[in-house]
Specification:
By secondary structure, the chain is an alpha+beta fold. The protein has 8 helices and 38 strands. The longest helix is centred in the last third of the chain and has 22 residues.
Length: about 650
């Protein structure tokens, strides 16, 4: 290329460049520094600066100043023009300032107007709360825009001056900063307050980090979150996090996070204030195990699980037991308070036991943090064993663990969400950890028995009997919570019928008869359940899960660890009258992998088929160092299971 043309192109690039001087000072500096570097390959947007300043202002109040600058690299990256702040609402949190700038590639600067800031409630189908979502939208964001947001928040959380930030997000981050400030501007100097910053799971994600204890964390070149990867562990167990705590000795209204014991005594006091010994009006029961069993059965029959948080503290502070009796509903805290109050009246000691289910697992060496838990159950002290699987022996004595939110779990057992977990029992003189006994865990399972006939064109007419253990398919809870319409919807999901199929639930057991499997008998008609494909006839066994999607796109390196599988049991049996003779492609078969063990048999007689399939599913985990092995295992298991199902459900016309 000629020198004159090179000079012209270079001059044009300078003349058409965006004027970073029109951005606020903090954003201008970050943009100018990043302009010397090449954006990360494949990124839709690049976060040039993600900065948070946190300060403690006394009386439990945290103040946060947040600054964010993003360079939009693709059309999809224009989503960076939307900014959201989650708050507790009420007096607990408020957004004091929210500004935005969009420096477009044509040089125009679009500022955020108050009209583009919207605050809405964050209710969901299962929760009614004061929670708020404050959203801001910058107009006319395009590829090449530099998008900046600045906000200030005031937060007075019911659980004290504690905050947590996830480091990674969808876009890569050039510079991530968190600073504790106490002496400048709108920050308050509180010399008696101890500050803590705790980091977790930085490896292997973070290559460059500068950490000043109790002061700041600064990280360079944070990668974006992996996209479209399946079998991913919960974020709290693998992704980099930064926790901040201000330990204020003058703050008595919130738990102290100085030690696990101080946290436990605060929770114990809060719960004991709400559960004076009391039983529901009209409830009559003797003491000991019979009374305990009767109370748990009454709660399962009379109380509904519901999250109603009409004040910010309700997410953590329970209702009084008498109020739960009156309302006949509550969340895990309320139901635990109801149970504690009742068993105290029956002569037992009982305590709240904090737990984490569904959103990850508690790890060894975790910092003291009230947000480490998302659930609470009850620990009942036993003077002598009752012979129940959910009993635990601890240095503080023998306790029976009961989760009153699980209406479909019998006394002495715990649902599968507690498997492999531990709980933190809160007493008046401190707390202690207790491992959930494996023997206490219900094993989810389903047995399906089909008795029917195959008619013209492969039409199935028959009766399907479903026997469900541990609310495996949510059939028991559907009937318990929503009656027959809800049960019909749950059964329909199991049958997965085409529009011209039909079913009718002819019998349903008692959903509160917890000592036996829940029985549902269904009359079903399927237009082409036994259909011809090429030279064979094929069917799909009811209820048994099919082959899963691949957890990793072929040719792409795995970044997350691999957590797979569920511990469940399935069985399918069928006795079918068929028009003619058919020979099974595979009369018997067996499959065993790290994720499952399956066995099948198919027998053909004159005008009949008898089928049997049993499946036990397993868990498997592969850490960062073995994640590619986990990907290969899942792909191999998927292919083997797919072939196993095809062979089980395939038949050739003619006598065996």
């Amino acid at each position: 290329m000629r020198p004159a043309l090179l000079l012209l192109l270079a001059t044009g690039a300078v003349l058409g460049a965006q004027d970073f001087g029109r951005l606020p000072d903090w954003a201008r500096a970050a943009a100018q520094e990043a302009a010397k570097e090449t954006p990360p390959a494949g990124a839709e947007a690049w976060v040039l600066l993600e900065r948070t300043e946190i300060a403690y202002a006394g009386v439990g109040e945290i103040r946060k100043r947040h600054q964010r600058l993003v360079q939009v690299l693709t059309e999809k990256g224009t989503e960076a023009g939307v900014h959201a702040i989650h708050g507790l609402g009420g007096k607990a949190s408020r957004v004091k300032k929210l500004k935005g700038w969009n420096l477009r590639p044509d040089g125009e600067l679009v500022k955020l107007d108050q009209d583009e800031i919207v605050t809405v409630d964050s209710d969901s189908g299962s929760e009614l709360s004061t929670g708020l979502l404050t959203g801001a939208v910058l107009n006319r964001v395009v590829r090449g825009s530099f998008v900046a947001f600045e906000s200030q928040e005031v937060i007075r959380h019911p659980l004290g001056a504690v905050a947590m930030d996830l480091v990674m997000e969808a876009y890569p981050i050039r510079r991530w900063e968190l600073t504790l400030a106490k002496k400048e501007g709108w920050f308050t100097d509180l010399k008696a307050v101890e500050t803590r910053i705790t980091t977790r799971h930085f490896e292997p994600w973070i290559a460059q980090a500068e950490i000043l204890p109790g002061q700041s964390v600064r990280i360079a070149n944070v990668p974006g979150l992996p996209q479209k990867e399946g079998a991913v562990p919960p974020w709290r167990n693998v992704l980099p996090q930064v926790s901040v705590a201000f330990l204020d000795p003058a703050l008595a209204s919130a738990p102290s996070v100085a030690t696990w014991d101080t946290l436990a005594t605060w929770f114990h006091g809060v719960y004991m204030a709400k559960c004076a010994p009391s039983l529901p009006t009209g409830f009559q029961a003797q003491g000991g195990q019979p009374g305990l069993a009767a109370l748990v059965a009454w709660m399962a029959r009379e109380l509904r699980y519901r999250q109603v948080y009409l004040s910010p503290e309700r997410g953590w502070i329970p209702e009084a037991a008498q109020e739960v009796h009156r309302r006949r509903l509550g969340d895990c805290k309320d139901l635990s308070v109801c149970l504690i109050a009742g068993v105290r009246q029956l002569g037992f000691e009982a305590f709240p036991a904090l737990a984490l289910i569904g959103d990850g697992e508690l790890e060894e060496g975790e910092p003291v943090n009230p947000f480490a838990f998302n659930h609470v159950i009850t620990a009942i002290r036993l003077p002598a064993t009752l012979g129940l699987p959910a009993e635990v022996e601890t240095p503080k004595g023998r306790f029976l663990l009961v989760d009153p939110t699980s209406r479909t779990t019998p006394l002495g057992r715990l649902h599968a969400g507690h498997e492999g977990r531990k709980v933190f029992v809160c007493t008046g003189d401190g707390g202690f950890w207790a491992a959930v006994p494996q023997a206490a865990i219900e094993r989810p399972g389903t047995a399906l028995v089909l008795d029917g006939s195959i008619q013209a064109a492969g039409r199935l007419v028959g009766t399907l009997t479903i026997l469900e253990d541990a609310d495996h398919l949510s059939l028991r809870s559907a009937l318990l919570q929503g009656g027959r319409p809800a049960l019909d919807s749950a059964v329909q999901a199991v049958l997965d019928l085409p529009p011209n199929g039909s079913f009718k639930v002819e019998e349903a057991g008692d959903p509160l008869a917890l000592g036996v499997p829940f029985k549902v008998r269904v009359r079903v008609e399927h237009p082409d359940w036994f259909r011809r494909e090429g030279s064979e006839f094929v069917l799909r066994p009811y209820g048994v899960p099919g082959s899963a999607d691949l957890i990793q796109k072929p040719g792409e390196a795995r970044r997350y660890p691999v957590w797979m599988g569920l511990v469940t049991h399935w069985s399918f049996k069928a006795h079918l009258a068929v028009p003619g003779a058919f020979a099974p492609v595979k009369a018997s078969n067996q499959l065993e992998t790290p994720l499952r063990m399956a066995r099948s048999e198919a027998k053909a007689g004159p005008g009949t088929l008898d089928l049997s399939l049993d499946l036990d599913r397993r868990k498997a985990r592969y850490g960062f160092e073995a994640r590619e092995e986990g990907v290969k295992l899942q792909k191999r298991d998927r292919n083997q299971w797919k072939l196993f199902l095809e062979e089980f459900g395939s038949f050739k016309p003619g006598a065996p």
